[in-house]
Amino acid sequence: MKANNAARIIVGLLLGGFILIEPALAQPYESGHQPLEIWDNAARANMPQWVQIWLAIMMSTFALGLFFVRRHVEARWVVGGFIAMALMTVASGRLLGLVPLSGLFSLVHLICWSPALYILLTRRPFMQGRSLYAIWSGAITFCIMFSFIFDIPDAAIYLDHMLGIGLIS
């Protein structure tokens, strides 16, 4: 009986959420990299060059984590967070029908990468000697923190818009 009640609550919250975001889903959006613009191939092609370079560095740094997952739990959290981000991004569009706005991707980054950042900042493997792992862990910590400088305000704008609060957007 308890499982049925929990399932009803979850379904109710999901349906309630769709009712709240329905007006936001119906709006036309332009392509771009701002929080309320569609993040598509045209948006990626028209990004400033420094953002394209940053994305390449960030993607490479995440990919390098694969070399350390076997021996380091922090690397497993980082790579797992990246995989979760990719899966959540696909699911948000295909399963939930959400418009791929840049702010949505920022929100997914915050959700999926925060556990890894917490582990990195509490364990501080980047301060434990000189090794390739220490260098990588420092670089990925910086990458996530730098990304969050942009992701936090973009996610807030996105949530404000989608929930119809109207305080920011």
Structural descriptors:
169 residues, mainly alpha, 6 helices
Your description of this structure?
There is one protein chain. By secondary structure, the protein is an all-alpha fold. It is built from 6 helices and no strands. It has helices at residues 2-25, 41-45, 49-64, 73-94, 102-123, 132-162.
- H/E element sequence: HHHHHH
What's the helical proportion of residues? over 70%
Terminal-residue CA separation: 42 Å
Shape type:
globular
Count of helical regions: 6
Strand content: under 5%
Helix/strand/pairing category: mainly alpha
Which runs of at least 5 residues are low in confidence (pLDDT < 50)? Answer: 18-24
Largest sheet: none
Query: What is the gyration radius calculated from CA atoms?
Result: 18 Å
The average pLDDT score comes to 87
- Count the E strands: 0
